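quick one, 385 residues, struct below
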Amino acid sequence: MKKLLLLTVLAFVATVTTASAAYKVGVLSDLTGPTSSVGTPYAEGIKAYVAWLNENGGIGGEPVELIQVDYAYNVQQALAAYKRFTSEDVVAMQGWGTGDTEALVKFVAKDRIPVFSASYSAHLMDPGKAPYNFTAAADYSTMGRAGLNYLRETWKESRAPKLAFMFPDNPYGTAPIPAMEEYAKELGFEIVGKENVDLKAIDATPQLLSLKKAGPDFVWTGGTTPSTAVIMKDAQKLGMTCTFFSNIWSSDENIFKLAGDAANGHFGLQGAAIYGQPSAGMDLIRKLTKDQPQMTHYVRGFVSAMVMCEGMKMAKAKGEVTGESIKAALETMRDFDPMGLAPAVSYFADDHRPNLSVNVCTFKGGKLEFVKTTVLERKKEWLGL
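---
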């Protein structure tokens, strides 16, 4: 009887020990808020990669446990979620928006918790300002510069191309504008206007009428796909012939569902592959999704989790997996290939930009199509700006 009791106790202890050995990661998601149309597929990509990883050995034999909170794009709810994460001893986080990521910068630095955010604001990639923040895609400013670079290279007329900006008046929307204005002037663009369009906009006619008088050739949209679709449709109604180019959250596979043929011929910038582009990673995703097409945001969430977990593996190989050891490991990562799903990733102790590579895509025939990858120089003066 005593022997049986002892075996039962040992089995219970073993179970508890195994359960407690999981590496906990907080996942801050917008599943019901104003960016949920892109936040949901991104979160699904994160979960899909971690589920696959756990089925294939985890981190040195230990699983990764995700603790997900839907904060509905509300900064106060994000702060409350963070308290929960720290109370459960997470070693890392997958974050989301610019406002909440900025609000958490000091907290995660103090608590030494690396955060892979889906906010690509340039200042969040400067370790001097945000030492525990990482991303798996180029920053908004780099994306904007890359888009401008592509448009200038393909411009055929002798006159200077005219450029305008449309974006929401919030930290996310305004983040890349100063950098893009400066680079546009350097490339020889003539800036003819800036207008604010809310993420929940259902009409952009007043703003477009203001820009129409200036006759822009190109218009940057820095909202989300629904607001960009409103802009494109209203521009078509007004007979505007400008070409829109959209940031990473303003252009995806839903654009034709929302904008119809008004989306044709415009451009979008991405940091990961479009579903179906050939690579080893895409073969894996197609297998995991039973070949059901997923949005490019899903792919990027998959990549973000992959890069984070690679940092955890590197930390494990050297000893204990902690927030501090994950950060140290990531800062030695060089040219990590996320299975061909995105450009190679490198981090440095003084530079957390993963790369300066941006995929230029176009909207054509009802589809999002890859055009080319534009790679910019890793200029020190661009870090954080």
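Residues 4-20 have pLDDT under 50 and may be disordered.
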